[in-house]
Amino acid sequence: MNEKIDFGEETFSLTSESLAKAMDSSQQKATAASDFLFLIDCTQTMQWVIDTLVETINQLVDMFEEEALRMRYGVVEFRDMLRDKEDIRMIHHTFEKNSHFTEKAASLKSVLSSLEAKGGGPPKESVFEAFKVGISQSDWRKDSAKIVVLLTDCDGPLSPDYSVKNWKEAIDLIEDADLDMLHVVRKAEHKAEFERFSRIEGRDGEDLPVFILDLGDSQASKKQLITTLKGIGYSSRKQARQKRNKNRFRDD
User: Fold this and answer.
1) Torsions phi, psi for 157 (to 5 deg)
2) Domains identified in the chain, total number
3) Is 41 exposed, middle or buried (0-12, 13-18, 19+ CB in 10 A)?
4) Domain at 95, CATH number
């Protein structure tokens, strides 16, 4: 079974002491790598989420930099592929050297700051298509932990979507991508619509680590979302170290 966790204040604490205890030796830290892809619903009700992410992103990046992890960050902004205007409905951002990932916190923050909540319409958005675009177009590193974070307040994935027609096709493409971790951050009342993500298998028939988390309802939930984002950073950092250790074991 996939583990579902609540990164509330009682279950997660960001203290310098706890971070220090979690660190490996400097030699081990330098070899851990992760490609971290954000899939962000940018429809008109998501501005508070975008603003909170912009405000918090430096803290997330600092968590990784404290451990000298080789992190890269990517961003896909999505809306409704079937109804929104072509120039805004799906944008896979590029960074230095035309890569879909950047190592630079300033470049990531610049892209996040440029996001504008607009468009959308019906309750469901192109979640499936965002996964397809992000997974298939990204220039992933072979040695990295591949981590995807979905942020959305929509009622559920649009199905059929533009080219991904149903849940089976969506799950197949995610499983074929050989991800190391998936975070789905959605509104609590839409829990049932996103539950199937928890059934995704990872490599070797093992369950993919999938964390289904609550987004909150509005600006009043900002503190909750910040805690959730920090929890995502903590668990993703741990996953990068675990993959590094597995790769070392296989190489020995």
Assistant:
1) -65, 140
2) 1
3) buried
4) 3.40.50.410
